[in-house]
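#struct-pred

JT: dropping the chains for the assembly here, can someone run the whole complex?
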Amino acid sequence: MVPWPAFVAAPLAIFAPAAHAAVYLSVEQAQQAIFPGARFTVEALASPDAAHRQLWRVSQGGWFIVDAVFGKHELITYAVGLGADGSVRGVEILEYLESYGYQIRDPAWRRQFAGKTARDPLKLDQDIRNISGATLSCRHVTDGIKRLLGFYESALKQR
Amino acid sequence: MSRPSSSVRRARPLLGTLAEIRLPREASGAIEGGFEALERVHRLMSRQDSESDVARINAASAGSVISIDPWTMAVLRRAKEVHALTGGLFHWEPLEMLESAVHVKQRVHLTLDGIAKGYAVDRAVDALRRAGADCGVVNAGGDLRVFGRQPEPIYVRHPRSPGKLVHIGQVTEAAVASSGAYFSATEFFDPRTRKVAKPGHGVTVIALDCTTADALTKPCLLEPTRSNVIAARFGALAVVMQ
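RK: done, full complex below.
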């Protein structure tokens, strides 16, 4: 006889969070996760179509890029480490913000969260963890990584 | 484990979704091994990657014998079992399993999307435990497993309103997976009728391992009124949400 999993029923509570967010890593933590021990130098980006993109040159060779992608209901900030040969060394999600009933594509609404989700949980229900259901596609992130590889080929390879 | 400050939480784009691992801070060194397990399943069972076991099986002509990784073999064996124990509600292709290879009797369109994520979560939990983590949560896009003694609250997306979360209780040492037409375009293929269904309900399966929880969501979704009878064959529990 297979034992039943421990399952404690609670009164069914339904609520609609205004927005919920997960903060995984800071930029510095992601840098050290992908390139342990390296130093990072910010490089200017003159790309008007990539206002969310930040670029660092890595002391041991290669690049560290932070970028953001927007879905219909989600905003995902992620970091990609590229080796000196342009190959992907690592990908880390930095922040995830999900919202229904708000205009996640509206820059004014988004600005209130930018870079401060960890310290300013206002309007965020950060403690909602362990959400089951609805496969959240990572297609925006994988498409974003492809764009960054194109950006490497066209702009970084020669630097 | 319960306070965010005492735990580490990381996420990567894997298995077609965002895969997340959360561990107590003192066990953070174990996290990389967990992601390695998720990545290994991703590499072996992705349909898109032409090097994967699944893609090689799908590219094989009738009569070929394709050698595969023991992990892929384990998933295939479980998939066949679930197919048999659910009266065909879980899709299966005509493959004959040999020692460490499969005999492709005719061309197949194999997908392990309904089970591989759950299997990946289980292998990640194994790796985390071996590396010394005594509790934690692995969540691959909504297929999640809680291990250790720490109870964890579980939220399920409302099937018709994914912005609403339903707190269904808390679990310890259990896996939870859900399925439903969360977004209006979601459709499900019924392998018995070979027709597409658009259920209005959602189903959540609670089992001891995530492979089982993941694999049972679709059969239970297709047969909501029999879902608990189906789940009970696997020592699992199904909750239907209208």
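JT: nice. The helical segments of chain A are 27-34, 107-111, 139-156. Chain A has one domain: 20-120+135-156.
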